[in-house]
Structure to design on (218 residues):
């Protein structure tokens, strides 16, 4: 177990396939709560950009829409857990083994499963753009920036993720069904799972997440 720290914020997992809106909802939650965002995809992309040993190992899996091996990801997460409360896990855990390891490290309060179907995921992700400076998310269909290619918040250039190509998006979705979807029952049996309809307006999705979070933490 990691060192306890007096923080009353909940430990929450945002579970969902590619494009479900985990990052979008995490951005909103961070505006509301003093919670620490732990997004394994973001951390891995940062390692790839820096050309670290972990990044070099992870890149070939990410480019194919496959999961990075558990031991690499678990080790990366473990190093970042320094307290007992107040984490927002985004994209982790993604396998039963990762979930079992997380169970040994920390007590979760809620797993919000944001559900969307594959055609919606492909539509959203092909149109996703990300700020290269501050990481803010955009969408050329649903949430375009005021000036094309430029972040409204910081003026940084917007880019398209390497894995947001239609073939890789479909592979990521298959990987989700095979390796991550079993977590839905795993957490349901533990009484932690709340299912959210992810195909609503982002604000509505957020209201539902806030409401189930309120119920589960009092
Ligand atoms: P990761 O970065 O975690 O990608 P992902 O899970 O595929 O999720 P995304 O970031 O694509 O989608 P999201 O749900 O965050 O959606 P977003 O809010 O951006 O992982 C990438 C790779 O890293 C993996 O494939 C794997 O290789 C590796 N990896 C990461 N974690 C790992 C782990 N634990 N174990 C092993 N490997 C790991 O929204 C998408 C778009 O839709 C945006 O443009 C947004 O504006 C728009 N949008 C969002 N919500 C809505 C809405 N309600 N209506 C309309 N548009 C919306």
């Amino acid at each position: 177990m990691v060192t306890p720290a007096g923080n009353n914020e909940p430990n929450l997992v945002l579970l969902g396939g590619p494009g479900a809106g985990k990052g979008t909802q995490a951005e909103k939650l961070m505006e509301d709560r003093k919670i620490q965002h732990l997004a394994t995809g973001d951390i891995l992309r940062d390692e790839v950009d820096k050309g670290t040993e972990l990044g070099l190992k992870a890149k070939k899996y990410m480019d194919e829409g496959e999961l990075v091996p558990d031991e690499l990801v678990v080790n990366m997460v473990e190093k970042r857990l320094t307290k007992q409360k107040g984490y927002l896990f985004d994209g982790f855990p993604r396998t039963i083994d990762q979930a079992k390891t997380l169970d040994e490290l920390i007590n979760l309060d809620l797993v919000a499963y944001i559900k969307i179907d594959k055609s919606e995921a492909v539509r959203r992700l092909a149109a996703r753009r990300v700020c290269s400076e501050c990481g803010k998310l955009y969408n050329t269909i649903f949430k375009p920036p005021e000036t094309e290619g430029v972040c409204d918040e910081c003026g940084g250039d917007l880019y398209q993720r390497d894995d947001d190509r239609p073939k890789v998006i479909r592979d990521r979705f298959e990987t989700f069904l095979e390796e991550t979807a079993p977590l839905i029952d795993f957490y349901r049996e533990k009484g932690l799972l709340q299912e959210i309809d992810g195909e609503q307006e982002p604000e509505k999705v957020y209201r539902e997440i806030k409401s189930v979070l309120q119920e589960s933490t009092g």
